[in-house]
Each structure stands twice: as C-alpha cells, then as structure tokens.
Amino acid sequence: MAWIMLFIAGLFEVVWAFFMKQSDGFTRPLASIITIITMLISFWLLALAMRTIPLGAAYTIWTGIGAVGAFIAGIWLLGEPITPLRILAAALIVSGLILMKLTS
Questions:
Q1: Mean pLDDT for each consecutive 10-residue tract of the chain (104 residues)?
Q2: What is the torsional sign of CA 92, 97, 98, 102?
Q3: Percent of the chain having pLDDT more than 90?
Q4: d(CA 89, CA 71)
Q5: pTM value?
Q6: Torsion sign over Cα 22, 38, 50, 88
Q7: Which residues have CB under 8 Å from 75's CB, separation 6+?
Q8: Phi first, then psi: what are they for 39, rounded to 5°?
Q9: DSSP string spanning the chain?
Q10: How far is CA 57 from CA 22, 72, 74, 104, in A?
Q11: Are 23 and 35 in contact (CB under 8 A)?
Q12: Which of 49, 44, 46, 38 is nearest to 1 (CA)?
C-alpha cells in the first residue's frame, strides 16, 4: 500500500507543478489554490508512504515521478520541445527510479 501511496503522491506532484506554472507566480487565484491543495495532498501521501519506505527511496522516487511527469506534461500540455538529450535525461531518471525500487 505504501508504494501505491508514493506513486499517487508523485502524480499529485506533477499536478501541483503544472498548476504552479499556470498560477503565473501565484497571481492567478484558481491555479494558486489548486497548486496549494495538491501540494498538501502530495506531501501527506509522501509522509504516509515514508512510514514504511526508507527516506532515500521514497524521496528519490517521489521527485523522479514529479520530474518525469512534469517533463511529459510540459511536452504534452505546454508544447515544450522534445529533443534527444531531454529524452535521454528522462530515460536516465526512469532507469534510476527502477533501480531504486528494485533495491528497496
């Protein structure tokens, strides 16, 4: 169950990162509210997952899901560029996440 909570926490991290971008420096109220609420949910789920998952693994996987998810959201929703080096960087992050999970 802790791994599921950690994965969901990572997804909420993607949501809050996206809406933080949309908040335009917290000048747009709705996007700002969504950012804060999804941050709290993400941190809460991360804290629950850390009850059983080691700190290093939990935090690394949480931030990795957020990083790769934000990368994908940026491309898909914001039209950010897709370059071979950006794809390689994301692939390296994913491989690190897999290794972290396998060793935890």
A1: 97 98 98 98 98 94 95 96 95 91 82
A2: positive
A3: 91
A4: 10
A5: 0.88
A6: negative
A7: 81, 82
A8: -65, -50
A9: -HHHHHHHHHHHHHHHHHHHHHTTTTTSHHHHHHHHHHHHHHHHHHHHHTTTS-HHHHHHHHHHHHHHHHHHHHHHHH-----HHHHHHHHHHHHHHHHHHHT-
A10: 30, 22, 25, 7
A11: yes
A12: 49
Residue 31: Cβ within 10 Å count: 17
**Residue the block writes with tokens 């690394």:** 60
Q: What are the structure tokens assigned to 89, written together? A: 């960087």
Q: Give the Cα separation of 68 and 64 in Å (integer).
A: 6
Structure tokens at 16: 């809050």
Q: At what angle do helices 55-78 and 84-102 cross, to 10 degrees?
A: 150
